[in-house]
Amino acid sequence: MEHALSPATLAELRRPRPYPAVSVLAPTHRREPDNAQDPVRLRNVLAEAKKQLEADPAVTRERRAEVVTQLDQALTEIDLAHSEDGLVIFAAPGEHQVWSLARTVPERVVLSDTFLTRNLVSAQAAERPFWVLSVAADRITLWNGGGGRIREARTGGFPLTLAPENFDPERQERIGDTPSTYRDERTRAFLREADTAMDVVLRAHPRPLYVTGETTALATLDEVGGVAKDAVHVPHGGLAQGTPEAVWQAVRPAVKHEAARGIERVTGELEAARGRKEFAAGVDEVWQNAREARVRLLAVEENFRVTVRDDGDHLMPALSGDLDAREDIVDEIVEKCLETGAAVRFVPDGTLGDAQGIAGVLRY
Question: What CA–CA distance (Å, rounded) separates 342 from 361?
């Protein structure tokens, strides 16, 4: 199952496809007893997808059979024993993908000429992704973090390794001593290479960066490059060849501290925006401003959900299952704000007070 949503992957998912491109969404559960219902609900929503394919006159028999085959193949790849909070299945002629999300989704089936991506986009924003660069003299490893987990990221040329140098007695005789590891020019050049590679990664995928390593390694990386200067330093060696769990335990306190600081910054910006009359609150008011690309900063409480219908001028409360209900309007708002260049921050429930779960700082 897929986890990492890069800009290139998102662009590929949004590419128009021959009709029908089928998106199947199903909520899942991490723990008992709630997860006992997941297999039944998943089978039911896939049956509904096949029913819609059968009933759609625009879908030929051959095309229907091909997409149904892709849906069946996707089902074999799903491991509900390791479920998170939502599943998204994409199927089209000749392809399928399964995405596991750490954010719940409404149960639904959509037939279109593109895949439905808003729930993926919102889930990634909610995970608050970050990078971890683990530095050692002979290996530098990049880790992809977010949503309470860390995985090694094999991108941008990482991991980088430096082969051991052959012992040179003539060199030692010339200089009179063997330089310490991080004063050695070969090691410093290695760190400069890592700095350049990390800069490329950050330009393509900007997110917070944490750097781990011995204190001397961190200081040397600061001397020879630029990316570590704006990163959070975690003085903990031995992680360049460590396990994801070891890396997570090392950086977790720093990640938690930075998250708390981020929440303080968000609430401060919202309060200042109130005073400047550049503040929007509530799903209807925020949606109106998001459609006009007026939102500069969007804040959403982590478990805020609301079902609405659009009467043409405003969003009105609706019941789940109503014919014109929009159950993932919060994810729609998140995606729209990100598309128009807004920063999106998820905050703990109750943080926004009387803002009713969602608020924005406006550009004007």
Answer: 9
Residue 88 CB partners (closer than 8 Å, separation 6+): 23, 24, 25, 98, 99, 101, 105, 116, 119, 120
User: What is the C-alpha separation between 342 and 289, in angstroms, rounded?
Assistant: 12
3 state SS for 84-130: CCEEEEEEECCEEEEEEECCCCCCEEEEECCCCCHHHHHHHHHHCCE
Q: What is the mean pLDDT, run by run of 10 residues, along the chain of 364 residues?
A: 74 92 95 91 96 95 96 95 92 96 90 92 89 96 92 95 70 52 88 96 92 96 92 96 97 96 96 96 96 97 91 88 84 93 93 95 95
- Distinct helix (H) and strand (E) counts, the chain: 10, 16
Q: How high is the pLDDT of residue 205?
A: 87
Angle between helices 38-55 and 61-76 in degrees, nearest 10: 170
Nearest to 58 by CA among 13, 23, 21: 21
Cα(287)–Cα(271) distance, rounded to whole angstroms? Answer: 20
